[in-house]
Amino acid sequence: MKYCSACGMPLLKKEDFAKGDESSEFCLYCVDEKGEVKGAEDIFEGGVKFFMEQVGTDRGTAEKMVRKNMSMLPYWKDKDCEVLKGEMATDEEFEAILKKF
Ligand SMILES: [Zn+2]
Q1: Residues 48 and 80 occupy one common structural domain
Q2: Are residues 44 and 61 in the same domain?
Q3: Element holding 3 (H helix, E strand)
Q4: Digits of tens for pLDDT over the chain (101 positions)?
Q5: 55 CA from centroid of ligand 1 (Å)
Q6: Strand, coil or helix: what is 2?
Q7: Which of 22, 44, 50, 89 could form a disulfide with 68 if both were Cys (CB 3.0 to 4.6 A apart)?
């Protein structure tokens, strides 16, 4: 299975891919209209909303979860992103929240 390089979302069907292009490494949410990958702030914010709406966490927990998730993805490793600095969920917290899906 493929996952989006920028947010970790599973890419299950054609429509999940950026621009519906199955050779893309990114999901439809992580690129703009021009097909360029969005900045860390935008992707971070999208992830925070996802956790708050889909999992029902508060904003603080959602931010810690997204920071943890994005910091595990190789795509962000060599990028210096302010938004990824700060408190992060522990492995235990991360696992516990992912189980709620
Ligand atoms: Zn994505």
Answers
A1: yes
A2: yes
A3: strand 2-3
A4: 999 999 999 999 999 999 999 999 999 999 999 999 999 999 999 999 999 999 999 999 999 999 999 999 999 999 999 999 999 999 999 999 988 87
A5: 18
A6: strand
A7: 89
Distance 7 CA to ligand 1 centre (A): 4
Ligand 1 center to residue 77 CA distance, Å? 15
Please check whether residues 89 and 44 belong to one and the same domain: yes
- Domain boundaries, position 61: 39-101
Q: Are residues 21 and 43 in the same domain?
A: no
How many structural domains compose the chain? 2
Q: Does residue 68 sit in the same domain as residue 81?
A: yes
The rounded Å distance from CA 74 to ligand 1 centre is: 13
> Strand, coil or helix: what is 98?
helix
Cα(92) to ligand 1 centroid in Å equals 23
How many Å lie between the centroid of ligand 1 and the Cα of residue 60? 21
